Amino acid sequence: MFYRENGQFKTSYQADQQIFPIAQDRWAILAIIAFAAIGVPFLVDEYLFRAILIPFLILSLAALGVNILVGYCGQISLGSGAFMAVGAYMAYNTYIRIDGMPLILALLSGGFFATLVGIFFGIPSLRVKGLYLAVATLAAQFFCDWAFLRISWFTNNNASGSVSVSNLNVLGWTIDTPLQKYWFCLGFLVVFGLLAKNLVRSAIGREWMAIRDMDVAAAVIGIRPMYAKLSAFAVSSFIVGVAGALWGFVHLGSWEPAAFSIDRSFQLLFMVIIGGMGSIMGSFFGAAFIVVLPIFLNQFLPALGGMFGVEISTAAVSHTEYMIFGALIVWFLIVEPHGLAKLWSIGKQKLRLWPFPH
Amino acid sequence: MSKVIGDVILDVQNISLRFGGVKALTDISFNVKEHEIRSIIGPNGAGKSSMLNCINGVYTPSEGSITFRGQQFDHMNSRQVAEMGIARTFQNLALFKGMSVIDNIMSGRNLKIKSNIFMQALRLGPAQREEEAHREKVEHIIDFLEIQAFRKTPVGQLPYGLQKRVDLGRALAMEPQVLLLDEPMAGMNLEEKQDMSRFILDVNDEFGTTIVLIEHDMGVVMDISDRVVVLDYGKKIGDGSPDEVRNNEDVIRAYLGTSH
Amino acid sequence: MAFFLETLFGGLMAGMLYSLVALGFVLIYKASGVFNFAQGAMVLVAALCMARMAEWIPLWTGIDNKVTANILAFAVSVAFMFLLAWVIERLVLRHLVNQEGVTLLMATLGITYFIDGFGQTLFGSDIYKIDVGMPKDPIFVLDGLFEGGVLVNQEDVIAAVIAAVLVACLSLFFQKTGTGRALRAVADDHQAAQSIGIPLNRIWVIVWCVAGITALVAGIIWGSKLGVQFSLTTVALRALPVIILGGLTSVPGAIIGGLIIGVGEKLSEVYLGPLVGGGIEIWFAYVLALVFLLFRPQGLFGEKIIDRV
User: How far is Cα A63 from Cα A280, in angstroms, rounded to an integer?
Assistant: First the structure.
């Protein structure tokens, strides 16, 4: 009875086309953002910021990027870790090598270079798809793994490939405490989320989805497959690159190529599958799930084992994590390919009818 | 009011199409006049869809050429054909199953959308206005095809007859000069066929769109066509008005059948 | 020159190992159109099973004879792989029959992760040894032609022979037996095969079992040479470029592709590596595959990929 569209008539196309056409949704989103910005800081301690919230925000951003490519445009990518790495290392280089480079600009430049790399490794998508494309993206992943380790220019001639940044600030405001880092990342996520949502509901978003659903038919109605696919790679890599730069600068502080290895690529792909392919909300759900699950298991499993007198090692917890991820991927693909986001929207449908059964 | 049929707008000359050893089309020539409804008929496997695929750029003919509005093309690419103003529906429905009806039809407007990716991302004034203007056009088409109630439904969930209408709507959204319809009434019952015939006639009447139609239902074909081409085993065996074709011996033998 | 030949042989042998893994991929793809990303995980879990069984069976049954223990371990491992194949078909594949390739690919990715965790939970996560009596000493050959001879690993040669035998058996199976024919029919068109009465589900179980055995053989050879440890990157992912090169549907392609990749990796590492800082093995195979994807996606021996409207 609370969640009804009664009386909400749209008298203009603009009203019908807005991101949240139902008024209750609009209020809810504003409330969530306000709560995230103002309420959360009062409730959480430093550990939660560092361990959960900041990784969640940054990985949501990365998942958003991956979702645009994989979920909206249907181009499989197992190389997202590499694009994050390009973002991080190139942001580092512009930050270090150009005097007085503002932080935000450095981060965005990381995204820009990631875009270039993304477009380059997206070229195979014009010829092949599916598994073949996955192999091409893996080539990106392994090549970047090597490049950032062995080409010393990227790491300012540091032998182990690790770099670090410090003294981050934006126009004089330092970004040092977890709270400041949290707000910084939140800001990025909200802005990029809005831009991404605008893109997917515009003509370019429809082009991406057309390519995903039937690329041969897409050409027949006048869509340029090359432009659509490469633009998906470009936009996706940009977002993933910025996320990578944030990951390195804000979350890690210092990093090496292993932070962006193939495990990261799989992790992002899993976020998109579990959260919901082709859904902006889904990216957030997926990221939340994948960030929280290991921590949850780390606390829960030993406690469970303790109840039965069985000792559960950290290795065992890690194996269980893998099993649960694997099983969930399969489960979602079979039962609900549109992931948590679809389950959420089914829930909302039921809420619209509540308290009536139908 | 009777319609005025114009000059030749599409001219197919000596088209042959080979797949390996199989000859799908052999030396086909016919033309299509502006504003007319031209049907292509023939038994299954005669090469009708292949012919449309050649006009449309999906297949490249092995020999021959196609002239549209005086410009001759040997190899047409689907996208160029779409830009030139030729739209098409598919026998097996090539709809974008994951998108809603509105989005499917809106995708047909893509050729006409001018704003670039940055403007779309920011949804600034011009981008927003353009989106609304195209939405308005799409709503006209939705009204015309009487599918208002299903606007937001993902097309994968619609019954077959409605999906066919969305397919037509998407082609109409391109504001084409020539509309290629590949068995638009396949699998429909009598009522649905009447509706679809009415839509086709209305499109031809209101917008002056030239229609090239593949159809098996002889009643429909003879009723609404201005001229008919008959194909059999990849060869042309008849060409003319419905009456001429109906009385053509070769056509009767190959396709229509004689009554004893 | 001798050094070059050694590097070449080394590459050929490494390539042979890749081919064995790639073989499993090709088999499943040929028969079901499913690209089984989990093949690498299957190789490793098969090897783990073999290694641990060889350890445990003497403990459980008191059998001292190494050969008997190994044979029993092999039998148990075969049974285990069959069970795994059956479970995967039942729980996963059956439900994804009509989905497109990408969905199936991602499902096998999920299966990979699951097998990874499950295998280690079951068998442990240390490094284990497999000892099936392969001769470990290297020998010197061709010492008539070259001073001192060329160093060749006996183990590698035997592995190559085993692989060749396996391939021959599989080719015979596919070409000459009724089941093999049925498998090829299913690979071509599921629905058509079903409509002439071929039991799809049973065929798929058979295929995965065959792939499982291939995985076991590959796992034993790998494990004997390198020790058994879980490292997803090394095994499965190395085999992917092999299939791109050889062609997804070609058994000889998997072999030749593997050899090319193996030799290419070793030679490029030795001769090109020092010029660019070394370590190019990790991407050489992939970049080679990338080049093939751009110019000849079906690989050397695969069928042309046709997109139907």
Answer: 9
pLDDT digit string (tens) for C215-254? 888 888 877 777 776 665 566 777 889 988 988 888 888 8
The rounded radius of gyration (Å) of the Cα atoms in chain B is: 19
CATH T-level assignment (fold) for domain A54-353:
ABC transporter involved in vitamin B12 uptake, BtuC (1.10.3470)
The tens digit of pLDDT for each residue in C52-110 reads: 888 888 888 777 777 778 888 888 888 998 888 888 888 887 787 767 667 888 888 88
Tokens in use for A337? 């390919």
Residue C118 inside a domain? The answer is yes
Domains of chain B with CATH codes? 1-85+176-260 (3.40.50.300), 100-170 (no CATH)
Instruction: Map residue A143 onto helix, strand or coil.
Output: helix
- How near does any CA of chain B get to the CA of A13, in Å? 6
**Cα distance between residue C99 and residue C224, in whole Å:** 38
Does this complex have an ipTM over 0.90? no
**Is C62 near chain A, with CB under 8 Å?**
no
C28 domain residue, yes or no: yes
Interface test with C, best of A211, A329, A338 (most C CBs within 10 A): A329
Domain extent for C204 = 2-233
Helix axes C101-123, C39-61, angle to 10 degrees: 20
| C-alpha of A135 from chain center | 21
- Write out chain C residues lying below 8 Å of A152, CB-based: 277
C309 Cα to chain B: minimum distance (Å): 8
Q: Where are the domains of chain A?
A: 54-353
